[in-house]
Fold:
Amino acid sequence: MEQLVNLATKVGERLKENQQSVTTAESCTGGGIAYMLTEIAGSSAWFERAFVTYSNEAKHDLVGVSEATLTAHGAVSEEVVAEMAQGALDAASADFALAVSGIAGPTGGSDEKPVGMVCFGWATKKGVVTETCLFDGSRYEIRRNTIAHSLCRLLSYLEAEK
Structure:
């Protein structure tokens, strides 16, 4: 937990320095990224809002993921997280959006999409970048690693913007 708080603190410091804001669209983490970001005192200066889009309906209704994309690629896909990130960015009028969708387990995986598979999306006004990772461990460990990875990548994007 301390490592995640330290990471969220660094993200917040960089956002504040850059006078930028962030929003999240989360599925498998259930709002865990937003929780970590708002653990930081003063986060209201740079944290815009969060969308917990656990169901496909929520992904569609809250952040505008198309039903065609969900049907064609499934909720755990780079195509879906790209739309989640872009939709959250647009809905929040933030500078950065971060989206995650994955299979935290212990059930729900398949040969094509195993437990531990997590898709990430980071959006700015310049575009969207996606990535897929496969994490080992328990449900807790997969979700924790997802939060850590998303914040680490966000921090690297923020540092590149300096």
Observations:
- The mean pLDDT is 97.
- Helices lie at 2-18, 32-38, 56-63, 67-73, 78-92, 139-161.
- Residues 5 and 57 are 31 Å apart (CA to CA).
